[in-house]
Structures are given as C-alpha cells and as structure tokens.
Design brief:
methyltransferase; 12 strands; seven-stranded mixed β-sheet; single chain; alpha/beta; FkbM family methyltransferase; SAM-dependent_MTase; Rossmann fold; 239 residues; FkbM_mtfrase
C-alpha cells in the first residue's frame, strides 16, 4: 500500500532559513513555505521564551521548524497522522538537530478506534484526512487517539496549533469533555467549514466562548465546497 501511494514521488530537499528540509511535492511545499515562513500565519507572541507547543497536524514539520526558529528553547510535541508525512517530519527534525521535539505518529480524534484515513495518491507525502474524502484517494486504516490523553500530564501548555483537515471539531470536543480545554493559553486552529454539510462553526466557537476565550480571525481560503478559516483563540485576560 505504501509503495503504491508513493510511486513516482522522488524525495527532494531545500535549504530554507538555515534549515535543510526534505519533501516530496514541490508545489505543495512552496504553498506551505509561503503560508508559514513568508505570510507567517502562525506568528504569535507567546509569554515565555521556552513555551510548550502542541503541533497537531505537523505534516513534514514546517510549523515546528518555524516555532523553533522563533523560540529555540520551546518544547514541542508534533503529532502527524499521515505515515508518509510523518517519515519526513522525523527526518527534518533529525537533520536539523532540533532538541526538545517529540514526534508522535497518530490520528487525533475524540475516541480511540480505527478509522480510514484518506490520502491523495498524487501528493502522498502531504495532507490526509479522517473526515474529508479526497479525490484519487487511498484509504489507510489508522488507529486514533485522544489529544486529552497527552495533555493531561503536561503541567503548562502555551499554544496548541491545529491543522487536522476537518478533525478539529472532534478534538476540541474531546478536550472539553476531558475538562482540559481551558488548560491551554492560546489556540491557533485552521477550521475546515463544509458548505455542503450541516454547519458546526457556531457551536465550535461557542465552545471556546463558554470556556472564557476571545478570538480573532485570520485568513479565509476556499477550495470548492471547503472553506478554511484560521482562528486564534486566547484567554480574555491575556489579550
């Protein structure tokens, strides 16, 4: 299965901001570089020089590298479901000798089970979703875990960055039910809104408002029936 997905994908690398970064697809790599390093969509001022950051949907590690560039002493937990992207994530962490970075290959959800994970054949090293079916897809059975099972043992969490291709609703639901949503100082979440499905955005935002968070909106991108909206949630007393 793995060979069939990656057939024709030749690993490439490029030096960027002093980092040597491995990737497969040039077009998607350029998009991520523009979003993360040029447009700085994850730019946030955190309150500590050594923050604890949870990177959900770490992909090949560009956001992790970005946070390490700005917060060299940060402790980062990088979660990635896509097994092909995860291999490159580990390679990029090791190649650039990043310290205090723990990589975890798992699909985050609101329960522990096994679900089909949709991976596009053309861009086998990038993307993938538990809830959004992709064109030209291959479905891989992946075990899911709950983010709350990891966060409960971390004393302080400065930031949760989340780009999980539609699973953000289930992950936030898990954190709320576990009583851990309020444990995080800030959230940076890419919300995936489907115009062809029942709207969940209002309830999603209400969950954070009810927990005492304010929020600002970032970019809005549209891909057919999918609208991607970035939300930055922060405790009201932090501004």
């Amino acid at each position: 299965m793995e060979d069939s997905v990656l057939k024709g994908n030749i690993q490439k690398n490029q030096v960027l901001k002093g980092y040597k970064i491995f990737y497969f697809d040039r077009l998607e790599f350029d998009i991520l570089v523009r979003e993360i390093f040029e447009d700085e969509e994850y730019a946030l001022e955190l309150s500590r020089p050594d923050p604890c950051i949870i990177d959900c949907g770490a992909n090949i590690g560009l956001a992790t590298l970005y946070y390490k560039m700005h917060y060299p002493d940060a402790e980062i937990f990088a979660f990635e479901a896509n097994p092909f992207a995860f291999k490159l994530l580990c390679q990029n962490v090791e190649e650039n000798q990043l310290t205090k970075v723990k990589t975890v290959q798992t699909a985050l959800f609101d329960r522990e089970t096994t679900l089909p994970f949709s991976v596009g054949k053309v861009m086998g090293s990038m993307g993938g979703s538990l809830v959004n079916r992709l064109r030209n897809q291959v479905n891989l059975p992946l075990k899911t875990t709950r983010l709350s099972s990891y966060l409960q043992d971390i004393p302080r969490i400065d930031l949760v960055k989340m780009d999980v291709e539609g699973s953000e609703v289930q992950i936030v639901k898990d954190l709320k039910e576990a009583g851990l949503l309020h444990k995080v100082e800030r959230y940076c979440i890419e919300y995936h809104h489907r115009t062809d499905l029942t709207a969940e955005l209002g309830a999603f935002l209400h969950t954070f408002e009810e927990a005492g968070y304010a929020y600002s909106m970032g970019f809005l991108r549209t891909y057919g029936e999918m609208q991607c909206i970035q939300f930055n949630f922060f405790r009201k007393n932090n501004g």
